[in-house]
Automatic annotation (TrEMBL):
SMART domains: PGAM
UniProt-listed Pfam families: His_Phos_1 (PF00300)
Gene3D superfamilies documented for this protein: Phosphoglycerate mutase-like
Gene Ontology terms for molecular function: phosphatase activity
InterPro entries to which the protein is assigned, alphabetical: His_Pase_superF_clade-1, His_PPase_superfam, PGM_Phosphatase
This protein's name: Phosphoglycerate mutase
Length: 219
């Protein structure tokens, strides 16, 4: 049986002093803590005999994910060089980008945020037909399309994909429950965490899903 593992990494903490929903807006970068988170996860991957054999690194095109992927590559490539392997470079893919959200640029869940004003909370009450933007089903479908393609392209290999909380969890939830819809407050996807999904290359069946949080102690 040939298996491919995709290690989905959530980006590190973002510098966001105004507590805005940054969504897909440009120029939202990792904070100092976020950089340390990314470096901790990169060190974890580089030290793992399993993960440091990955054959490719992908990410969402947004600043925070590319910066997190850069920290991972900075830790991983010296290990590859010591083995006589060529360094890996980053490839971006729109299918693992952050979820679209009509609240972008607004304050959410901090003080008198937009979510609580003018009855806006009603927009998030129906998980199957959300009014705030992109549906969970659509998010999971595009991530699933990406995953199936990469399983075909990397049979028997492992890859790293740096993405965002909603795409990672929506796809995982779909695989585990049969539907992508979920309550956002119940996600289990910490900053700079790794959700590893292993697929049978012949059938596409999910063989295992594991989770680790290497940056949990970073302050």
């Amino acid at each position: 049986m040939t298996a491919t593992t995709i290690h989905f990494v959530r980006h590190g903490k973002v510098y966001n002093p105004d507590h805005l929903l940054y969504e897909r807006l440009p120029d939202f970068h990792l904070s100092d803590v976020g950089r340390r988170m990314a470096e901790a996860t990169g060190a974890y991957i580089a030290a793992s005999p399993q993960m440091n054999t990955v054959s490719a690194v992908y990410s969402s095109p947004l600043d925070r994910t590319r910066e997190t992927a850069g920290a991972i590559l900075a830790a991983l490539n010296p290990v590859r060089e010591a083995r006589g392997q060529e360094p890996l470079t980053l490839t971006t893919d729109e299918r693992v980008i952050e979820a679209g959200n009509e609240f972008r640029g607004k304050r959410i869940g901090h003080g008198e945020g937009a979510l609580w004003r003018n009855g806006n909370w009603k927009l998030v009450a129906n998980l199957w037909k959300p009014s705030w933007g992109e549906s969970y089903a659509h998010i999971a479908a595009r991530v699933g399309d990406f995953a199936r393609e990469k399983v075909r392209q990397h049979p028997g290999e492992q890859i790293i994909v740096v993405s965002h909380e909603s795409p990672i969890w929506s796809f995982r939830h779909l695989l585990e429950t049969g539907h992508a819809e979920h309550w956002m407050f119940l996600r289990h996807t910490a900053l700079a965490s790794i959700t590893s999904i292993t697929f049978d290359c012949e059938t596409g069946r999910v063989m295992s899903i594991t989770y680790v949080d290497p940056a949990a102690g970073i302050q």
